[in-house]
Design goal:
With about 425 residues, the chain is an all-alpha fold. It contains 21 helices and two strands. Strands 1-2 form a two-stranded antiparallel sheet. A hairpin with a 2-residue loop joins strand 1 (about 25-30) and strand 2 (about 35-40). Helix 5 (about 115-135) runs antiparallel to helix 6, helix 14 (about 265-280) packs antiparallel against helix 15 and helix 16 (about 300-305) runs parallel beside helix 18 (about 330-345). The chain is elongated, with a radius of gyration of 43 Å.
Length: about 425
């Protein structure tokens, strides 16, 4: 656009000059004693324009010649920059593809060639990552030292060096050193998301569960941590805090500080139930488990719910039966109901619940509960059969060849092993 504008402007000026000279005819006299030169005004104007053009071209040629060394240096710098850029790209591709030796060589070449601090820091950090991936820790530490030295010229480059070094220290199972580096970084400025994630990893590895809980909540609120990962972190931290509390008052404070959606997490509810049950507070234990089970049925929580004193059996049975109306075929819930009935000496309901659970899922624990029930009701044959099925399900006993009854005496000392295909179906599950 600019080229067309200037071309049009020159054409207009030329036309204006030609029209002006046409209507303003005259002579130009040059007195060069002893000579006198007379020219028309048009010719004089053309000569002046020609002289101006020649002088301008000569000056430009002289200027271009004088600037030639500078132009050569600039060309060499551009070529070196292009080569360094190519090496950086190739090194990063090799690093991402797992060709760590080539990546380290390319990045080391860039670091040795460039004079730009940011590019040198980037190259050294990338080479350090490649060396770390190859378990070359001595060479990695040397490259990190070179990156720190290059970052001294620019304070904005230091966080990158700290974060990369802390990440590699955490991979090397050195959380104390990583946490010390990250603490220095947080003292000097705002806390960025990646540094908070690394700090969370360090506190988790060190078992600082209070800090883990706080950081996991912060990162979850800022969408800087996957919801599933945040939930696992919060659950693990809260459970460990409850179990590690030294007294009942501390446990109550910790439980009170937890949010409602955190208390119903299965791992947290299980830990809370364990510590309050150990304190003898069965009412609080029941409420904790019921709140968590209302949110989601869990096999571990149902087993804990079925473990109680005689005074708690009736209210727990009533609550479990309300869950059964919503989940009529849940084997874990049926097993928990059978356990509660068994503890309450309600033999008939216990047998029905446990048999319904077995019809949904063959489970060694349910067989053991039924065997215990039959022991208490003097049904020895059924008890032995379910004890065998429970034991086989837990430890995988071999199938033995036997006659109609159980062998005793010398013949029983020499059992013959055979494949299950040769055993009758009603004996394949027992001995």
């Amino acid at each position: 656009m600019r080229t067309w504008f200037w071309t049009l402007l020159l054409l207009v000026a030329a036309v204006g000059l030609a029209v002006g000279l046409r209507y303003h005819a005259g002579n130009v006299a040059l007195l060069l004693p002893p000579y006198r030169v007379e020219l028309s005004a048009s010719l004089a104007a053309l000569i002046l324009l020609a002289l101006f053009a020649v002088l301008y071209a000569a000056l430009r040629a002289i200027s271009w010649t004088l600037e030639l060394p500078v132009r050569v240096r600039r060309w060499r710098a551009r070529r070196a920059l292009a080569q360094q850029q190519e090496l950086l790209e190739r090194g990063w591709i090799n690093l991402l593809e797992g060709r760590y030796a080539k990546a380290e060589a390319d990045m080391s070449n860039v670091a040795g060639q460039t004079d730009v601090p940011s590019r040198r820091v980037l190259a050294n950090l990338s080479a350090a990552r490649a060396a770390h991936a190859m378990q070359e820790f001595a060479r990695r530490d040397l490259l990190l030292a070179q990156a720190r030295e290059a970052a001294e010229a620019d304070a904005g480059l230091k966080p990158a060096v700290v974060l990369v070094e802390a990440d590699m220290l955490l991979d090397q199972q050195r959380p104390e050193e990583a946490l010390a580096l990250l603490s220095q970084l947080h003292e000097g400025g705002p806390k960025h998301m990646h540094s908070l994630r690394l700090t969370l990893r360090a506190h988790r590895d060190l078992g600082h569960w209070a800090e883990v809980l706080k950081l996991a909540r912060t990162l979850s609120k800022r969408n800087a941590l996957h919801p599933a990962a945040a939930t696992r972190m919060i659950a693990a931290a809260a459970a460990e805090l409850l179990r590690s509390a030294s007294d009942a008052a501390t446990r109550r404070v910790i439980w009170k500080d937890l949010k409602d959606d955190e208390r119903v997490l299965p791992e947290v509810a299980r830990a809370g139930a364990e510590v309050f049950e150990a304190d003898g507070d069965e009412v609080r234990t029941r409420r904790i488990l019921e709140a968590a089970l209302d949110a989601q049925l869990s096999a571990v929580l149902l087993q804990a719910y079925a473990r109680c004193s005689a005074e708690q059996i009736s209210p727990r049975l009533e609550k479990a039966e309300s869950w059964l109306r919503q989940h009529p075929n849940d084997p874990d819930l049926l097993q928990a109901l059978g356990t509660l009935c068994l503890c309450g000496r309600l033999w008939g309901p216990a047998q029905r619940y446990l048999e319904r659970s077995l019809s949904e899922r063959d489970d060694p624990r349910t067989h053991a509960l039924l065997a215990s029930l039959y022991d208490r009701t003097d049904r020895a044959v059924d008890a032995v059969r379910h004890w065998r099925l429970a034991t086989e399900g837990v430890i995988g006993l071999p199938v033995l060849k036997a006659d109609e009854g159980v062998l005793f005496g010398p013949a029983a000392a020499r059992p013959q092993f055979e494949s299950e295909e040769d055993v009758a179906p009603d004996r394949a599950a027992g001995l």
